[in-house]
Design a protein that fits this description.
mainly alpha; two-stranded antiparallel ribbon; 79% helix; 178 residues
Length: 178
């Protein structure tokens, strides 16, 4: 029986192939990151004091208490906390995009960079997102409460992030440790 060592050698150094699921997940991540980046930057430039006052007045129709909290949140927007929250959001988007790029290249450490980018917004929410959450939870619209809306938003974010993390984790077997 003859052993062909040449075939064995070429199989050991053959480049690994990216799975279709990994390809699709990376592309979806980049699309989401681009959308979030554009909406974040647009929010910086289009969120004028006049527009904020208009939003407060619209909120006042539903809940005067929520409008007062929203007004307080807008007043604090120039504060260090809001700037930190904006910076954390942009850093998180960069980490998520970079992690997806590294996984596109089949580098396993991209998964951990991606996870850091996905966890960072939750840290920002805990540290500096209290005013916005307080305004949201104080809404008392007919048929739905603000706390229900806030809970649904957070659960949807968690589910979305978990699904993507699982899709990436399933593909770790195709990635290299370098």
């Amino acid at each position: 029986m003859e052993i062909n060592t040449e075939d064995q050698f070429t199989n050991d150094i053959a480049p690994q192939k990216r799975s279709n699921l990994l390809t699709a997940t990376c592309i979806l991540t980049w699309i989401c990151c681009a959308f979030m980046f554009l909406s974040t930057v647009a929010g910086i430039f289009t969120n004028t004091p006049e527009k904020q006052a208009e939003q407060v007045e619209q909120m006042r129709k539903f809940s005067p208490e929520a409008a007062d909290k929203m007004e307080a949140a807008f007043a604090n927007q120039g504060s260090v906390g809001q700037i930190v929250n904006m910076a954390l959001s942009l850093i998180a988007l960069g980490l998520s995009s970079l992690g997806a790029y590294m996984m596109w290249q089949l580098k396993k450490k991209g998964f951990f960079i991606y996870l850091a980018g996905e966890i960072l917004p939750y840290i920002g929410m805990l540290l500096v997102g209290q005013e916005g959450m307080a305004a949201l939870t104080s809404i008392d619209a007919p048929g739905v409460s603000g706390s229900t809306i806030a809970m649904i938003m957070i659960v949807l974010m968690l589910v979305f992030d978990a699904v993507f993390a699982i899709m990436y984790a399933v593909n770790l077997k195709y990635m290299k440790n370098n």
